Amino acid sequence: MIAEILVLNTHSTQLPLFVSNSFDSKDTYYKTFTNITSLCIYLSSFSSYILSKKDKDSKVEPISNTSETEFYYPVGIIINSENQVVGKEPLDSLSLRSQKRLLESRFHHLNTTVSIIPFSEKKLDSSFIEELELIYSCTKDRLTRIETWVDLNPKIADLSDNHTSRINTMGRILNDYSTEFQLEEESDFMARLTASVDYRSLLNTPKSYEYYLSIINSWEFPAYNLNGDELLYCGSIILLNAIKKYSPEEIVGVENRLLSLLFYVRDNYRSGNPFHNFRHAIDVLQATNYFIDRIKEDVEFQVQLDGRTVVELLFASLGHDLGHPGITNMFLSTNKTPIAISFNDKSVLEKFHFKQFTKIISPFSHKMIANKKFYKGFEERIEQSILATDMGQHDYFVGEIDKFSNYDDESKKTIMLCSLLIKCADISNVCRPLKVSVKWGLSLGEEFKEVALLENFIKFTDPETKSKINISPICPPEVIRDIDAKKAIELVPGLAGSQMFFITRFAYSFFSKIGENIPALIFLKNQLVENIDYWESLLDASKKA
Fold this sequence. Notes:
The chain is mainly α. The protein contains 24 helices and 6 strands.
C-alpha cells in the first residue's frame, strides 16, 4: 500500500517510532507538523500532495503536480490527543475535535482518514491502517477510482459511516449535507483558513499580472499552456475584476477569501479527468466573461445583464462541472448508480454539480461579501445556469434562441440569456481558433475512450480480469500541451470525423442562431465555419486516398 502519513504533534518534530513501524516504509511518505496551521498550508499547496516513486528502492517523496496526476493513495493524519495549543493563528485555537472535522471536510478530496490518539500509549489503532488499505484498494488505478466515485465498487459498502475515511464518492458527497450548525462551523473554518493562510503565496505564477490579464481578454485563451496555479490565478482575476466592477464597495479584504474559495473548488474537480477538470472550468469561466464583455460593448443589444447577474453567472461557470467523475449521464442511469436514482435520471450530473458547488460555496457566499442585498438569492440563480449545461436539454435551448428576446417577462429573458451564454461557453471549444480547439477535441476523445473501457471494467468481479483492462492514454496533457492540428491528426486519425459529428449534431445550428440573435457573438460562427473547412478538407482527402 502506498500512503502518505501526516503527524500533528505539538511536542516534537520527530516522527514517532510506533508510527513508522506500523507501515511499510518503502511505500510510505511521512511528514510531521507542530501546529494545525502549517499542516493546512501543506495540504492546500497544489504542489505538495502528489507522491511519486523516487528511485529503484521504491522510496516515495512529494513532487510537483505538473503532470496532473490524481490521487491514487490515501492520506492518513494522526493527531496527538495530548497536543497543546501552539501558535497564534486562528486555526491553532481550535479544539482537537474541531481540527479533525476541519481536516475531514476541507481536505476530503485527498481521501483523508484522521485519527486522534494519545502518543504516550505508543500504539496506532489497527482500524486506522485497515481503513487506509481499503481506500488504497479503491483508488489505486484510474478505472477503479471512477468505479468507486460513482458508487459501483462493491468495496464501498465497507466504507460505512462508522469509518473515519472521507473518500469522496458521489453518494457520500450528496448525502453529507450540512445541518445549520455544521454550516456555521464550516463558515468558521473557512474564516480561520482565510485569516491564517496567504493563498497567493502558494501559487506558482511565473509571468506578470499583465500577461495573465491579456490572455484572459483573448479568444485564443491558451488553457493547455497554463499550470494548475496559473489557471486558478486567471480565475481569481476574472472574478475579482467582476466584483470590483459591479460591487466596488465589497472589494476590501475579498481577494484572499476569493482565492481560498478557488483553492477549494480546484481541489474538488477530478484532476485526472482528460476533459471535465479544473482546466475546463476555467476555460468556461474565461469564455463566459469574454462573451459578457462583448455583449456589453454592443449598446444596441436589448438584453443587458446587471452586475449581480454577471457575478452569479461567472460563479456558475466556475462550478458548473464540479466533482465530474469523467463519465456521462447515460452511463450513470444505465448502470443504476445511486446518484442517478437520487435525481430520477434527470440532469443527474448537472444537479450533482450544483449540489456540491452549493456545499462548497455556502460557507463563503454569506461571509465573502457583506452586501446581502446585492447577493440575495445568490445560489438559487446559479442553479438555473448550471442546469442549462445538460446536453440532454440542448435542442430545447436551440429552439428558444429565436424567441428569448421577445419574452414579455424581463426576468425570464435574463435567465434565458444566462443559460445561452453558459451553454455557448461550455461547448465553445469547437469555436476556438484551430490551434486551441484541437487540444480540447483530443482530450474529449480520451475521456470518451475511458467511458467505453469502464463499461467493460464494471462487468467483471475477478481482479485479475479487471487488471487487464488498462488505460493507456494516447494524448496525456503533456502531449496535448504542445500539439498542433497536423500532429493531432497523425496521432488520432479519427479526430476530424469526431469533430464534425459534434459540430453537425450540436454546434452548427446552435452557434448560427446565436450569431443571428446576439450579434456580438457572431465571431463564434465565423470561427466555427473556418474550422469546419479544415476538418472537411481532411475528410475529403481521406476519402480520395
